[in-house]
Amino acid sequence: MLCQIAESGSFTAAAAKLGYTQSAISRQAIALERAAGATLFERRTDGVRLTRHGLSLLRHANSILESLDAAERDLTDRVPRVQRVRLGVVPSAGPLLLPATLTRLADTSPQLRLTTREGTTPALARALRAGSLDVAVLTSRPPHRPPDAESPRLRVTVVQDVELLVAAPSTGTFTARDSVHVDELVDAPWIASPSSSAEPLLGVWPGLPGRGRVVHVARDWLTKLHLVAAGSGVTTIPTTLTPLLPPGVRTLRVEGAPPEIRRVLTARLPGPTPPAVRAVVEAVEGAGSTR
Question: Per the database record, which ranges form the HTH lysR-type domain (predicted)?
């Protein structure tokens, strides 16, 4: 329960994952705090965060779970034939970076089995803290603060800096153009992603003056890009996605505003890095250096 709350960031989301009611999870959280004799959860308007005592208990809980797995292997003489690593990836980095990473691992570490999941940077950072991920590919925007405010800091390594572009229909307002002034985008129809200040996703141009006119909302990149190809609006993409653009979509650089740069990085918990996790980090970095 503690691990799921840490990963989900709220009692409600944890309850949905575990199959309980929100009130049941809240009662269990209160009971756990009474047993621990300390406040473990910081209850906020935007969700729940673990306190210093909660993070400490979480580390011990993960150690206990790892010890139980090791004990089971010893008792059953079960020797793992493969090394398993759990990788989280933000949606904008997955389409090209993830396949290239898997290709590299197949050559360099054939004994390694990688499982992956997608999520936003805040969600993946929580999953790292909760122990349900070993490494994550995250993004950050200037001034490139740490992925979360918890201590100790996550260990991060820069993979690449990526410029953002606007994806627009090949025909229509922006036909045969390679750039657009930011003021021209104010009244453009935008295809956005369902996001919030706590879980940001790309969609409306980040530096747009005023609020964008959103006409379609879709989380999936393929859906957004095909909506652009159909002439239904424009959307923001990283340059790394340009090789995957469907016919009927062109990219535009935005003038009249500072460039929007996003940093792609790997993150993992501080402390010694297991060889299998290090191999994944190196494969991600190698895949990023070729983009």
Answer: 1-51
